[in-house]
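Here is one chain, start to finish.
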Amino acid sequence: MEELGPLLVSVLAATFRVAATLVFCAMAGMFSERSGIIDIGLEGKMLAGSFAAACVAMVTGSPWLALGGAILVSCGFALVHGLACITYRGNQVVSGVAINIIAAGLTIVLGNAWFGRGGQTPDLPPEARFMPIAAPGAATAADIPLLGPLYANVLGGHNLLVYVAYAAVPLAWWVLYRTRFGLRLRAVGEDPKVVDTAGISVTWLRYRAVLIAGLLCGFAGTYLAVAQNAAFSPHMTAGQGFIALAAMVFGKWRPWPAMFACLLFGLLDAIAIRLQGVALPGVGQVPVEAIQALPYILTVVLLAGFVGRASAPHALGQPYVKER
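Its structure:
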């Protein structure tokens, strides 16, 4: 039992850290898809944001400027997606896949050209990163069995962007369900013709939605490169954008259920990391590749059999042509 406490604290702390990226991306996808725009490009925007954040942090030494750079680059990709899907009414899935491919290739090419390290950026010093913040009174509470470590390492001990990620969930709920903008955003994802008839610009609403998605992907990218890690490495998002999309669908395009789905994926990932190299009774040592595949297997299993009937916004993926 004495060993179980530290293990529980370690797993829970890692769950909140790992899930923060997914929460940012799930909220981003939710805003975009609630407006009727499919956003397969979450992965690419997050990857481009990670690269921009690492580069800006290395040059300026400021994590805040790194965050601003990541948001600008991510929003730039979001505008490209909006231009293709909203203005020119192109295929939204193809546009998102193209963004993923461009971001994956461009970050490697630029990283290799600028730093000559196979696409990886140099390691960042602590002052150029968002570092963990100690919880108030954590040292005093450390002697309390279980509760002290839980307070110090699960509720506290994270960097600023982890807290921003979870604060974004109630904020997203409030914007979607308690503001005029949120009402119009949900309406344009269900029936854009009705919104247009009311004299509201469908195009402008959808552009604002994809820009919010770009903003949140910039936060996610900054978290990966400047907070959770100390550098950018090629393909460091490792499919987390797609897992966030799955969490959003699992949560049926609602903020709170999507967050809990992200925490579920984060928990499995945290457990998988600790299972590497461990011999299980009657099974032996599980291959590392099988352990690393667990979050992705869970994604498929949940979407295939346990989600139930997920009702997407009715106008999702359908370009709107204004009647004259």
